Amino acid sequence: MFRWIHENFWLPTIYLASSLFLFLGGVDLVLIGPKSLVASSIYAAAVLFARRLPALSVLLVLIGEAAAILLGLTPSASSFAIAISVLLIAAFANRQTRFWALGSSIFGASVVIWFLTFGPFASFQSLGILVNENQRLIALSVSVVLTAGWLALSWLLGRLAFVRMEHVGSPLDQALTMLSQARINLELARQNERLEIAKDLSELLIQRVGAVLSLTEGGSYAVKQNPEVASRVLSRASDAAKAAQLELRRLFELLHTGAVAGGVTPRLADLEALVIAYRELGYNAELRTEGEPFQLDEGAEMCLYKIAFESLENVRKHAIRGTNVTIEFTWVGEGLQLMVKDNGIEASNRSRVSLGELVDGYGLEEDFDSLVQQIDGATLNAMRERAALYEGNVEATKAPGVGFTVAAMFPNLKTVVESK
Predict the structure, then answer these.
(1) How much is the mean pLDDT over the chain?
(2) pTM value?
(3) Among 127, 151, 168, where does a domain finish?
(4) CA torsion angle 159 164 168 173 (round to 10)
(5) Does residue 261 lie within any of the structural domains?
(6) How many helices (H) and strands (E) does the chain have?
């Protein structure tokens, strides 16, 4: 709600002030009488201006409290609007105005309570609550303490709402941040892999250049001794130079986009947080594990994490909110099967039907296509290449009328990991 109030100009406070006036003012109209509408309207106006003109809101609160004193009003429901005004001012006003609002509202409320207790109207006495002087003093002290605490709590809630909105974020903000961090971690891990490959290529390149130098030095000596041998040596030197150039080209192509060192390599344990993030985004995400897990190295865990992450990203791009998404790990002996299933088609059809649209069912042709047609794509091909490093395979299938399933199978994963 606070973000809605923050991002819009007048409309949220108009709605809020009108609602408070109609409800609280209506209660006071029944319990106190028509004169209570004066204070109710002033308090509602204070709520209206609390977001954009907080100083005016503070002034209106004091005017409303003065009106309650002059009219001799008994404690009214509309005074609840004072706390709402203080809360909004604490959330959105500057530091000086925030403290002025808290102090003036407590002071004004204390004066109202004193007039209701000892003033010429003595409204509390008409309620049969106050009988003697001691009881009045006790009632005054308790009422002032409770009112001050009530307003201070409203002020603190306003500051807490501001901190949460600006620095912590809503659950949706946190979910989006989690997804962004997951993408960054995957990119950092990929760049670190590139650096490792670059190190290997650099070492090979040094060997190639060393071979070229050795052959050219031998060629220089052979020219003096035997010109025929020299031509063969120079030919070999040329071949070695070409091979070195090829390795240099591979190194350039690998590094031309730059590399980033550091970062945290994603692990399977991070999937639980990713599932929670998708729940905050509106998907019914679930993580299941069957069988006895075995130890995996960092590379294998990142491979599995990336397959699950990319599958979830594909669901987010193509399926509506409310879609059921399940990540299943099945550990069997030496192998592992990872499946990411969704019912995006079913959820979409159900949503369209609820809006009154006519939805055609699927037929034999779609059933046949789902059996014979292979689903391909750049992301899916990248998953297959990564899975192949661990003797695995990735397949994507479509269940007509239901959704899609991405299945990654690693029949010898444990053996492959132990051999690396």
Answers:
(1) 79
(2) 0.49
(3) 168
(4) -150
(5) no
(6) 16, 5
